[in-house]
# Entry
Amino acid sequence: MAEIIFPTSTAPGINQGESGGRLINSQVEFAPAGSRSQHIWRAVPGLRSATSLGAADHRGALKFGSTLIVINDDEGYSVTKAAGVYTPTALTGAALLSM
# Structure
């Protein structure tokens, strides 16, 4: 049976097609000497939706202190957290945005 080769990084290579794949909800560690494999893939917690910020495509997010600025398509939101509850507030204005 052919060996299944799992990626050890999500980072792409210098040339197109060099990346080894994509790690989703996992991390890679070097295995101890004498192990059957050089690497160990460990599961890590995934993301869960805290709130919905529109149906548009996600373009980016930046954290400023305790406020998260999220841009989805042409809409902006500031997200704050208090007592474990995330509160989004729509950003208004017509100025251009650069992140």
